[in-house]
Amino acid sequence: MSPAHAPTHPRRRYAALALPAVGALAAGLLGAVPPLSAAADSTDAAAADSPVGYASMNGGTTGGFGAGTVHEYVLSEYWPGSGHGSPGDALYALLKEHRGKSGEGLVVYVDETVSADAFSESKLDVKDLENVSLLGVGEQGEFDGVGINIRNAHNVVVRNLEIHHVDRGEKDGIGVQADSSNVWIDHNEIYNEFQGADKERYDGLIDIKSGSEYVTVSWNHLHDSWKTMLTASSDSESAASDKITYTNNHFENVNSRVPLIRRSEVHMLNNYFEDIAASAINCRMGAQVLVEGNYFQRTGSGETDGHAGQVEGPVGWWYGSDETGYWNLVDNAFEETPSGHLESTTDFTVPYSYDALSPEEAKAQVEQNAGNGVIDVAP
User: Fold this and answer.
1) Nearest-angstrom CA–CA distance, 169 and 191
2) Rounded Cα–Cα distance for residues 335 and 53 (Å)
3) Catalytic pick from 12, 159, 201, 257?
4) Which stretches of the chain score pLDDT less than 50?
5) What angle do CA 109, 79, 21 make, to 5 degrees?
6) Reduced to 3 states, what is the DSSP secondary structure of residue 103?
7) Nearest CA-CA partner of 141 in 158, 126, 155
8) Which is nearest to 24 in space by CA: 158, 129, 148?
9) pLDDT tens per residue across span 247-291
10) Omega before 359 cis (within 30°)?
């Protein structure tokens, strides 16, 4: 039998101590990803192997390495002999087969392009499962026209991927929904098109909704899109997510929803906002948001929104909902950005410990370290 058609078995790694699962999460002491080596100019914070913020709570977020038995696959090695016609179809099948395997972890090193043209499904479902890591290798992990849909899933890590031009399925780069919990989205580059594009062709770059909670979105480069992010798909209570940290992200050349927040408790920490055409942090329906240590550059149109009479800028309540949200502004910087009208409307803070950089330090670190290809994830 030729090597290309030889049976393919998962690589297995066993935790040194066999630990029982606790709730939806395994209580393994392994990290969220294997040991990382950062690029020469990366900082320790950017290369950290566990999340800051809400995803560190509720038992923590360890992904596929958080189980007693870990099944590891390198996509380029697995799919040719898997019987599936493309890397995307092979990855979809691996995720589907992992459903119901409580206490076991799945880690897939993505070193192929998952292309819509060669993919049988409308989106990549990470659905009804737990303890999963999707880790890009170098700059090889790419989703071209295919989004990742995390649905009713727990303890999931998505790291170091390029995801772009998703105009099929739910049209989100990454969607987190249906009561998912403990999700870490880190060091990805996600983009569509903005100027000259039909704003209905794509949806959000990262949308989190429908009861999902304990999510951290960190060190991502999100750019070129009409719709950037949201934490609820409508004003209703059932549509909202909660307990989300956005930290050290670079938001660049987008129109609005950076993010759109309804009803959620959110921490916007040390992000860099650059060239946001209309408005950025849109707080509605009683949302409580700590906006801390961010650098806003050319953020907001400066026009007055006709709905609530507020200036379109870095933080506010715009476009539709009947009830405002609330924001606590701590140590932010504004450059060529309408901000003289801003003041805090709540004293909301967060229940976890963290280190905050100054806005200027945050901008420099984000420019250097956000996006994919900055950290090396070794199979």
Assistant:
1) 16
2) 27
3) 257
4) 1-11, 13-31, 33, 35-42
5) 50
6) coil
7) 158
8) 129
9) 999 999 999 999 999 999 999 999 999 999 999 999 999 999 999
10) no
Amino acid, res. 261:
I
Rounded Cα–Cα distance for residues 65 and 34 (Å): 8
**How far is residue 131's CA from residue 24's CA, in Å, rounded to a whole number?**
9
C-alpha 168/C-alpha 331 separation (Å) is 40
Task: Tell me the CATH number at 109.
Answer: 2.160.20.10
Amino acid at 68: G
Whole-angstrom Cα distance, residue 173 to residue 249? 15
- Distance between CA atoms of 222 and 370, rounded to whole angstroms? 9
Active site residue 257: yes
Which token pair is 198?
Answer: 């039909």
Distance between CA 75 and CA 67 in Å, rounded?
20
CA trace torsion 309, 315, 319, 322 (10° rounding): -80
- Alpha-carbon distance of 219 to 365, in angstroms, equals 9
Domain boundaries, position 180: 3-377
Number of domains composing the chain = 1
Q: What is the pTM of this model?
A: 0.91
Which residues on neighbouring strands pair with residue 323, listed in sequence order? none
- Residue 334 token pair: 């504004």
